Amino acid sequence: MASSSSYSNPPCAACKFLRRKCVAGCMFAPYFPPEEPTKFVNVHKIFGASNVSKLLNEILPHQREDAVNSLAYEAEARLKDPVYGCVGAISVLQRQVLQLQKELDATNADLMRYTNNDYGRRVGYDPTSGYPVQYCYGGDSEAAGRDGTN
């Protein structure tokens, strides 16, 4: 019969995948929980458990979680795109940002043009000088500006 302690402390994803006993001070346990087995599997496929262990030993404890998350992201990206990895994803996103910036600039230019045209219809512009001409006739000045009659 299994002891109750084995149920309260399941092995981390790394130890489970590597088929070894997960001890209390396991280096992988805080970063590869048993609920996320694919995280370790991907990192192991790309970098190897030994290299990850060496890396974690070389960096400061407060930086380890960020390092593991970066390794997991890079490993997933390398599995999707073996040549470029996350650099390929970054390039795609940069191109999207540039395209969206161009669209935004064009939309802002259209908005400015429409705003200026609307102002020109309400106030009126002298086509020769480009200066606004206000309609000061009695009645509805908006109607006079819209249809262009004075």
**First and last CA, distance:** 100 Å
Regions with pLDDT < 50 over 5+ consecutive residues? 1-7
Number of helices: 7
Helix content: 55-70%
Primary descriptors:
disordered N terminus, 0% strand, rod-shaped, 150 residues, mainly alpha
Short account of what is shown:
By secondary structure, the protein is mostly helical.
Could you characterize the architecture of this molecule?
The protein has 150 residues and is mainly α. It is built from 7 helices and no strands. It has helices at 4-8, 13-18, 37-47, 49-58, 64-80, 86-123, 141-147. The radius of gyration is 32 Å and the shape is rod-shaped. The chain starts with a helix and ends with a helix. Residues 1-7 have low confidence and may be disordered.
